[in-house]
Structures are given as C-alpha cells and as structure tokens.
Amino acid sequence: xxxxxxRHRHRAEPAPRRLPAWCRSRAVAPLLSVGIVTxxxxxxxxxxxxxxxxxxEPHDVLSAARLSPVAGAVTAPADxxxxxxxxxxxxxxxxxxxxxxxxxxxxxxxxxxxxxxxxxxxxQAEHEAAVAKAARDKAARxxxxxxxxxxxxxTPVGEVKxxxxxxxxxxQFGCLEALWQRExxxxxxxxxxxxxxxxxxxxxxxxxxxxxxxxxQTNPMTQVRWGVSYIHGRYGSPCGAWAHSESHGWY
Length: 251
What we know:
Blueprint (H helix, E strand, L loop, with lengths): L27 H23 L10 H14 L17 H58 L7 H12 L1 H14 L36 H15 L3 H11 L3
Helix pairs in contact: 4-5, 4-6, 5-7
C-alpha cells in the first residue's frame, strides 16, 4: 500500500495593501471642494473685518433676501382692524361700570378731603384774625389808660381831702388820710406796677371805679366816692380798713 503524500497546511498569502480612502483618486475632488469653500469663507471674513467698500450697500444681498420675507410677514394691511374676541362677554360691561364707579368714588373722596382742608384753613385764619384783633383792642385799651394816667388832676389835693372828710366824718378822716397816703399819696393817676391797682383808693382792677362815674380815670372826686363806698361795704369804716392794712399790709 502506497502511503499518501503528507498534506501540509499553508498560510494564505497576505493581500496586497490598499491605499487609504483619502489617498484614492476618487477622494481628491471632495477635498478640493472643501478647500475652496474654506478659502472663500476666510476671504469673506477678512473683507467683513475691513468694512464695506466704497459705494457698497450696508446689507448684502443674502441678508436682504433673508429679512424681506420676515418683514413682509409682520406687516399688516392698511385697512386691517382688530376686534377683541371677548368684546361681547357678559362680564365686560359690569367690570367697566365697577371701574367707573371706583374712579368716581375716589374723586368724590378727594374733593371731600380738599373741602375739609379748606374749611379747616379758613377756620384757622379766622381764629388767628380774632386773636390778633383782641390783642390790638387790648393794646388800644392799655394805650388809652396810659394816656389817661398822664393827665394831671386839676383839682387841688386839699379840696379832694375836704370832700373825703365830708363823706366819712372828722373822727374817721384821720384813718382814711393815713390809709390812702400809704396806698397812692392821694394821686388820682397812681398805678401799682406789680398788681395794676389804680387811683387814689388803688382799686384792683381800676375799672371797678366805673360804677361811681365814667370819668373814674381822671376825676379824683369819683375815685374818692367809690373808695369810701368800698371801705364801708368791706370794713365798716376807714379805721377798720386802716387796722386791716396795718396787720396785713393791704386792705
């Protein structure tokens, strides 16, 4: 038996290496297109950085082509009109009336406050005017009293004392003379600076003597008549008034 020849396993021969896709001839055209586009873009960017050429329009044709459809889309016709879709809604009329009422109420409140402020200002002005008038009247009264004080009495002091003695009697006149000498020195225009007492009897206030006569400011006889009446009504006699003045310093 003849032996079969020995079989040997052989490796397959490696296939020849193929060029990469980018080296093949069919890939050269796309690469050239990409390069051309890149150069064009770089050239456009460089021109833009340098600014538009003289006489060129501010916007290129591409921008105008892109913007014109948008502008045409948002431009409304000249005779276009708009109506609110809810103009006939049932709540709209009451809401409008409520808003109108609110505005009217605010206006009325503002007018009321303004009227009250004006009334208060008028009342304040009236009060200030009244106070000023009272001050003027008081100053006028003081002025008239002061002018009356400087008027000298034309009645001699002796006659005034005789008249006083005829009213109180000889036994009481000594006390009366001493009392009024201490109080006023028998001066019908004497006035106490601290208390305001006035006249021969030093009435406080001096207007009390008006019950004896309207000329109480200048007439010593009127003052004596009022003073004697006051002493009799309060102390019973001039000596009683003198005794009180001695013990208290006033009568």
